[in-house]
Amino acid sequence: MKKLIIASLTLTLLLQVQAQYDPEALTVLDAMSNKYKKVKSFKASFSQKLTNESAGLDETISGDIAVKGDMYVLDVAGQKIFNDGTDIYTFNAEVNEVTISTYDPEESEITLSNVYDLYKNGFKYALAEEKSNGDRLIELDPESRDKSYFKIRMTINAKDELKSFTVFERTGNKYVYSINSFTPANLADSYFTFDTSEYPNVEVIDFR
What we know:
CATH topology: outer membrane lipoprotein receptor (LolB), chain A
Pfam family, one: LolA
Signal peptide: 1-19
CATH superfamily: Lipoprotein localisation LolA/LolB/LppX
Structural class: alpha+beta
Keywords: Lipoprotein, Signal
Protein name: Outer membrane lipoprotein-sorting protein
């Protein structure tokens, strides 16, 4: 009986480990990541839906992003954010003001510039569901409990394309990002640099 209990516990632990680092999920994630790695730079349009049942939140906004490596230009909610890989410039057209801060990859938000490789560092992953249309639902669980979110759910189609991802925050907020279009583009590094000469009389607030 004692041996049976030990064997049962060993099997349970083994199944837990496999569920945390599911090889099927890894295969899907690697295929998706490798597909996007072949694209040097791209432009995409997306929508973001924020819901929180307890707070009565249900908001949707749309935006556009251009990405090249760690660099991106994000145009959303009346702001245009330039990340040149070193600094982040947040431009508010309404007040003609740009705020500059140092880019810290460790503290950066989850965006279309980093979501494709997110699983490679500090995450457990599992294939939650495979739908009849070929969509695979992958769930990522951050190993660190210091994150503001406790789960990310990705929908990856049969062509290994990321269709959407959902971020579940500990506050109850749920962010659903849907990728509406994705277009490879040949973008120069200068595209991701905020040029003050192109914005006459812009007020610069530098926090670097």
